[in-house]
What does this fold into?
Amino acid sequence: MEYDLIIIGGGAAGQMAAISAKRANPNLKIAILDRTFALGRKILVCGAGRCNVTNINLDKSIDDHYYSNNPGFPNAVFKKFGYQNILEFFDDLGVKLYVEQKTDIGKLFPTTDQAKTVTGVLEEELRLLGIDVHLLTQVEQVEKLKADPESSAGSQFLIKVTKVDQQGHPQSESEFKSKKLIISAGGKTYPALGSNGSGYGIAESFGHRIIEPVPSALPLVSKNPLSHYLQGMKLEAEVTSIINGKRIKTRTDDVMFTQYGLSGPAILNISREISIFINREQKSGVEVEINFLPEIDVKSELEKRWNNRPDQTLEKSLYGLFPNKFAETFPRALNLEKDKKVKDLKIEEKEKLFTCLSSYSIKIDGTRSWNEAEFTAGGIDTRDVNPETLESKLTEGLYFCGEILDVDGDVGGFNLSWAWSSGNVVGKAVNNVK
Ligand SMILES: Cc1cc2nc3c(=O)[nH]c(=O)nc-3n(C[C@H](O)[C@H](O)[C@H](O)COP(=O)(O)OP(=O)(O)OC[C@H]3O[C@@H](n4cnc5c(N)ncnc54)[C@H](O)[C@@H]3O)c2cc1C
It folds into this structure.
């Protein structure tokens, strides 16, 4: 089958690229090839099924929220398609977004609170625009054919695919040809949803350099006893990543204590640099410091409580500041007697409590795996990609967008924003098919 434009990968970025390309040039014959049984499967799990589509702070501070070995690259893309454009794109498709007020992070969700709303309107738009979708079609290899001197058509890409069944078992082989090619095959996270890193190999076959991908926005592993004692508990706290003694990033949000270590949005938010240090650089020396009461002067608050009720037990004196289970177990984790009357606490015991409530240090032994990471840090080196068009600087007619590129953003809607913006920019750039 021959097309003007083939897009490898129908996630958020690939679908946006297809829609933008077709709107810019309705004459283009476009197809999306995807290895799974449905498009946009990762969109469905975004924001725990609610889909955090974008962030109100997107345009204000691109450099503060995005990471790449080639800083400035994301900026060039968002200049062409930014926050307002994302809102207008979804508004036009009938999706109203609202800013979540629970935190001041500025996350936007569809008013339906359903990721299905987003996948539904994208699927319908692809259908209305007449874009072909080939599912269960796994791209194995791509080559650029030499232009036929007899024909006026330029050179084409030959795309070799395996048709697979729902379990991913190979069924048959076939080929596509296309004048232009966009690779939007995603990163390596949640491989069960489609993106398994195979896009990197295709890019490498055209000489593209890859910044070693590592999982980002993922839980951390720690043998620290606190996680063991507080297992299953979630509470809001301020967490700081400390790498080789240097304080790197601080975030306040929910922290979850689990049987293997730490999770929750606050931890996911500070995990990027930790994962690069441990998984890419293969080094150790990471701590996470937790301030359980960032808004309060712990010492004066506890001393006031203890002066008012000297016969209260240590555990009961913490009630109201924390969930009761924390009040019971935290002293145990510090080897303090929870039933000791506060008037009997020794000065060292009080000091230990003050210090540990405001700066409890947890040694990190590792990270969880790709199956639990929200996105990928690293990917196709953007120094080899034109930031204005997202075309390869090495192969004419080859383009990239989305998570496969070495660009990732903070938790809070920044990664989908990158997928929408880069998808739009590339879709518009390819429309002059020679
Ligand atoms: C649990 C979870 C929650 C998240 N929540 C949010 C959130 O709320 N907000 C936010 O901004 N970001 C969130 N993210 C991140 C966000 O989902 C991704 O960054 C974004 O969806 C990436 O889009 P993409 O199109 O680049 O890649 P993907 O969505 O990964 O799409 C790539 C597509 O390519 C296909 N493909 C791969 N290789 C091949 C091949 N060889 N042949 C054919 N097809 C192929 C895959 O099947 C897949 O459909 C979350 C991620 C996860 C895992």
Summary: The chain has a mean pLDDT of 95. The pocket of flavin-adenine dinucleotide is lined by residues 8-14, 33-36, 41-43, 45-47, 51-52, 138-139, 184-186, 189-190, 194-195, 198-199, 374-375, 402-403, 413-416, 419 (CB under 6 Å). The first strand starts at residue 2 and ends at 8. The radius of gyration is 25 Å.
